[in-house]
Fold:
Amino acid sequence: MAKKGNSAKDKLRAYFLSNIGKVLNSYELREVAGGQTEWGRRVRELRDEEGYQILSHNDRSNLKPGEYLLENDKPIPAFSRDISKETRAFVLDRNGFTCQMCGAVAVNLIPMILQKRLGYILDILLTKVWVVQMIHQTYVQFVQYVMKELQTQH
Structure:
């Protein structure tokens, strides 16, 4: 486990706080994060989970894609993203397992997975049955051939 101050998020937080009001670009932020590819996720965590007002081109038209700006060092109250399994189950049940934004309906994946798995198993069994039938047919043809040869030799 990383010590306090050594994680990419800690380094990014310190860098933003030492550059308040200055536009920072993605190249320098990635370098500050130690070249970590997930530096963008760490920036979002600082914004969403810790409440720092880190602005991007989505927030300000004068910022270009890949540019970020921390306006001040005062984080706004942030809320946890965690949802208990009980709350999740209640909300899904209450909403009829339907997305309240787009109306998409959640499907129960277990029957679909079982159906696919059973179809796969059935395919394997049918293939094995076919192979056994072919072996049996070949065996019968071989026995018939041998019997015929034996009859012609006597």
Observations:
- The longest strand covers residues 67-70.
- The chain has two domains: 8-70, 85-153.
- Residues 109-153 form the longest helix (45 residues).
- The two ends are 86 Å apart (CA to CA).
